[in-house]
TrEMBL record:
Lineage top rank: taxon: Eukaryota
InterPro entries (UniProt xref): Oxoglu/Fe-dep_dioxygenase_dom, P4HA-like, Pro_4_hyd_alph, Pro_4_hyd_alph_FE2OG_OXY
GO cellular component: endoplasmic reticulum membrane
Catalysed reaction, written as an equation: L-prolyl-[collagen] + 2-oxoglutarate + O2 = trans-4-hydroxy-L-prolyl-[collagen] + succinate + CO2
Pfam families: 2OG-FeII_Oxy_3
Protein's recorded name: Fe2OG dioxygenase domain-containing protein
Lineage, uppermost ranks: Eukaryota, Viridiplantae, Streptophyta, Embryophyta, Tracheophyta
Record carries keyword Oxidoreductase: yes
Chain ranges of the Fe2OG dioxygenase domain: 144-260
Subcellular location: Endoplasmic reticulum membrane
Keyword field: Dioxygenase, Iron, Metal-binding, Oxidoreductase
Gene Ontology MF terms: iron ion binding; L-ascorbic acid binding; procollagen-proline 4-dioxygenase activity
Keyword Metal-binding attributed: yes
Length: 264
């Protein structure tokens, strides 16, 4: 009975969150329409609006099942370059979660290099602005976010399809992952698409190969927001995703995972 009640509450919470996000997206689209029709952009004098990049971010709904939204121009070029500069000296071989222990282990499933920002760095003005923006557009509190990870994929590197939600007891004690914000930090990348194999029967290019599903091409400043949980509060199997092989250039990205409850 308690489990059923918990699922109902979680489902209602998820439904309200999605409703708020849809409302925010329609509001942003309306504001954008007014700007384009009048040529007036009032955000220059509004600190909060500048932090959220109102008038620049353009949401595009890619799929409702799985739930995927691309936020064009989510990061400024300066923010992208800043994250790369912070990460570059501290890169190490990326790991994946061990389902038995909940700890990170090396695996041929993931062949990138990466690092995590520290809690102290979260307080830096530019990082703080990005964290706030992620919270507003996802409608998930800042304190529910894990530490941001910056990744570098060079030619021939990839991340095989996987789910972001947890299956191990160690991580579930700290709250299931609800959603992921994946931000692209570099241009000039061939391949390196974010691939959702269960996103439908349409064909798309993944690392130079045609596959069925949804492929999001990496573009500097854009972000992909997708949910690991369904509206009923259960994990969404269709959220399976991967990073296609990079066939040219270097792909830099930043990932923010968000959970059901505060992580700090």
């Amino acid at each position: 009975m308690a489990m059923a009640a918990s699922r109902i509450v979680l489902a209602l919470f998820t439904l309200v969150t999605v409703g708020m996000l849809i409302g925010a997206l329609f509001q942003l689209a309306f504001i954008r329409h007014l700007e384009e029709s009048t040529g007036f952009t009032p955000w220059e004098q509004d600190e909060e609006a500048r932090m959220l990049r109102l008038g620049f971010v353009k949401p595009e709904i890619i799929s409702w099942s799985p739930r995927i939204i691309v936020l064009h121009n989510f990061l400024s070029p300066e923010e992208c370059d800043y994250l790369i500069a912070v990460a570059r000296p501290r890169l190490h071989i990326s790991t994946v979660v061990d389902f038995k222990t909940g700890k990170g282990i090396k695996s041929d499933v993931r062949t990138s290099s990466g690092m995590f920002l520290t809690r102290e760095e979260k307080r830096y003005p530019m990082i703080k602005a990005i964290e706030k923006r992620i919270s507003v557009y996802s409608q998930i509190p800042v304190e529910n976010g894990e530490l941001m990870q910056v990744l570098r994929y060079e030619k021939g590197e990839f991340y095989r399809p996987h789910h972001d939600y947890f299956s191990d007891e160690f991580n579930l004690k700290r709250g299931q992952r609800i959603a992921t914000m994946l931000m692209y930090l570099s241009d000039g990348v061939q391949g390196g698409e974010t691939y959702f194999p269960l996103g439908g029967d349409m064909e798309c290019s993944c690392g130079g190969k045609m596959v069925k599903g949804i492929c999001v091409r990496p573009k500097k400043g854009d972000a992909v927001l997708f949910w690991s949980m369904g509206l009923d509060g259960s994990v969404d199997q269709k959220s399976l995703h991967g990073g296609c092989e990079v066939v040219g250039g270097t792909k830099w990205s930043a990932t923010k995972w968000m959970r059901q409850k505060a992580t700090a």
